[in-house]
Amino acid sequence: MKTVYPYYLANTARKSDVLLDVTDKYSGEVAFQVSIADKKAIFDAISAAEKAETEMRKLPSYVKQRILQHCIQKFTQRANEFAEILCIEAGKPIKDARGEVTRLIDTFRIAAEECSRLYGEVLPLDISERSKNYQGQWKRFPIGACSFISPFNFPFNLTAHKIAPAIAVGCPFVLKPASKTPVSALLMGEVLAETELPPGAFSILPCSRQGAEQFTEDERLKLLSFTGSPSVGWDLKAKAGKKKVILELGGNAAVIVDEDANVEDAVSRIVFGAFYQSGQSCISVQRILVHDSIYETFKSKLISATQSLKSGNPKEESTFIGPMISEEEAIRLHSWIDSAVARGAKLLCGGTRKKALLEATLLENVPKEEKICAEEAFGPVAVLSRFSDFDAALKEVNDSTFGLQAGVFTQNIYKAYRAWDVLEVGGVIIGDVPSWRVDHMPYGGIKNSGLGREGIRWAMEDMTELKLFVLRTP
Q1: pLDDT tens sequence across 233-258
Q2: To 5 degrees, how large is the angle CA 210–CA 215–CA 9?
Q3: What would the pLDDT profile of 284-305 be if each residue is shown by its tens digit?
Q4: What percent of the chain is predicted at pLDDT more than 70?
Q5: Radius of gyration for the alpha carbons in the chain, expressed in angstroms and rounded
Q6: Cα(312)–Cα(358) distance, integer angstroms
Q7: pLDDT band at residue 211 under the 50/70/90 scheme
Q8: Do residues 68 and 124 touch, judged by C-beta distance below 8 A?
Q9: DSSP letter, residue 202
Q10: pTM, whole model, 2 decimals?
Q11: C-alpha pair distances (Å), 215 with each of 186, 209, 304, 314
Q12: DSSP string computed for 126-163
């Protein structure tokens, strides 16, 4: 483990005179420093990526697979180191940090498997007399140099969901990691620099907000993939020009617990879904809708389970709730709790804050226009409400500007399919929380939750262009 990390420009480690402090999110002390890329470095990185397009496009599948397999091997060998650094820079409890590193490895493994499966299709053209002597085919080609901006909450795996498919299809890229958690991406850069990727294939560039404009606005970049807050994402889209834009944004995910649900099971999964990683996930359970007939029993068990969660030092094995990414974020969310209570909401448990540590908190009777219901909490807070009519509950879930994923606990298959048909979200999870994700499935949302889908196969499609071939036989 180092204390100072370089950035990567055109596959090469570079040091700069300007350093960014990266804090231990629990202690607040500076744990690492990373080199900051200036505007010239970013310009040069984009130039190198554009120049690398031809060589990346020519890479055969077995070479791309070999590169990805090298990453898998090295990530596996360094898994404990990666988890420890993630625990420090993100404040993620150590068990969760190990879990994210496992997912990082899974994501690269999926990409290694998929890189030889970028299929095309024969297209019959003889649909009428005039086209009887024609035949067609189509296949996909790399879109070219890509721009990636990754978030702080899953700095290994959500970055992997951009890097791995880019390598799998043969797209060079420039990446801006989150300023609060840049070390994870730079560790991946260390491993990528060991591979046979052609010069300019990748750059990983922590930078200032001013320098980051090039990641969005430079016309040499053919695609922008951003994961982060809706306000930033939609602003970037407006500035992105002609390039393709993929946005993975926020949510205020809801879960329905119907009358036939197994209460014990639902409680255990919802406690995980609401408070895993201190609720700092865009598919964290934020709104819990419970059927009248089981509401009181469910509420009692959920309060008990929530109160049993241990908060504190994320380096301790028994810790479930670690610090939020910053004290400012904890203060922001605590003020939302106070606002809801001031307007009549009932605080069921939690609600206290110590610096960046915010207790796991449950509320009920919250006015729906309160921020804690209507906006994305992105922290360890969830809101309970009751329903008596399943269709009305579906309507309430849809009463949101977001639409990422939703969960439904029901044993009625007709209701399950109705939820799939009716809910305005990118994914419906039956018998579990909306927070559930496996890294090869299509993942993304609608409305304010974004555009496009991640998941290796779908990201690979976005990072390619379909090209048609037509042959006329005279």
Answers
A1: 999 999 999 999 999 999 999 999 99
A2: 95
A3: 999 999 999 999 999 999 999 9
A4: 100
A5: 23
A6: 10
A7: confident
A8: no
A9: E
A10: 0.97
A11: 17, 10, 47, 33
A12: -SSGGGTTEEEEEEEEE---EEEE--SSSTTHHHHHHH
User: What does the DSSP assignment read for 229-283?
Assistant: -HHHHHHHHHH-TTSEEEEE-----EEEE-TTS-HHHHHHHHHHHHHGGGG-STT
Distance, in Å, from the CA atom of 364 to the CA atom of 362, rounded to the nearest integer, reads: 7
* CA atoms of 184 and 355, how far apart (whole Å): 24
Whether residue 255 contacts residue 404, with contact meaning beta carbons closer than 8 Å, is answered with: no
Please report, for residues 86, 136, 153, 285, 350, the alpha-carbon distance to residue 378 in angstroms, rounded to integers and kept in the order given: 19, 49, 10, 10, 16
Report the pLDDT averaged over residues 164-187. 98
Catalytic residues: 248, 282
Residues facing 402 on adjacent strands: 447
**Would you state the pLDDT for residue 51?**
98
b (16+ CB within 10 A) / e for 151-176 = bbbbbbbbbbbbbbbbbbbbbbbbbb
DSSP state of 454: B
Question: The tokens of 473 are what?
Answer: 């036989």
Q: Which of 288, 263, 264 is nearest to 275 (CA)?
A: 288
Per-position DSSP letters for 383-437, written without gaps between them: EEEEES-HHHHHHHHHSSSEESEEEEE-S-HHHHHHHHHH--SSEEEETS-TT--
Q: Is 350 exposed, middle or buried (0-12, 13-18, 19+ CB in 10 A)?
A: buried
The position carrying tokens 């969901």 is 161
The per-type count for the chain, helices as H runs and strands as E runs, is 15, 25
CA dist 394 and 398 (Å) reads 6
Residue 287 contacts by C-beta under 8 Å, 6 or more apart in sequence?
252, 253, 254, 255, 373, 382, 383, 385, 397
* CA 438 to each of CA 107, 118, 135, 157, 454: distance values in angstroms, whole numbers, following the listed order: 9, 21, 39, 11, 11
> Where does the pLDDT of residue 208 fall: very low under 50, low under 70, confident under 90, or very high at 90 and above?
confident
Report how far residue 324's alpha carbon sits from residue 355's, in angstroms, rounded to the nearest whole number. 9
Q: Is 124 helix (H, G, I), strand (E, B) or coil?
A: strand
Residue 124, Cβ density class (10 Å: 0-12 exposed, 13-18 middle, ≥19 buried)? exposed
Give the residue from 380, 377, 396, 379 showing the smallest Cα distance to 388.
Answer: 396
Report the C-alpha gap between 226 and 234 in whole angstroms: 10
Q: Which residue stretches of 263-362 are H helix?
A: 263-275, 295-307, 327-342
Residues contacting residue 4 through CB under 8 Å, at least 6 positions apart: 15, 19, 32, 33, 34, 35
**Per-residue model confidence as pLDDT tens digits over 25-46:** 999 999 999 999 999 999 999 9
pLDDT at position 298 is 98
Summarize the confidence of residues 67-85 as an average pLDDT: 98
d(CA 456, CA 109): 10
Tokens representing 218 are 């430079």
Residue 210 banded pLDDT, cuts 50, 70, 90: confident
Are residues 398 and 419 in contact, defined by beta-carbon separation less than 8 angstroms?
Answer: no
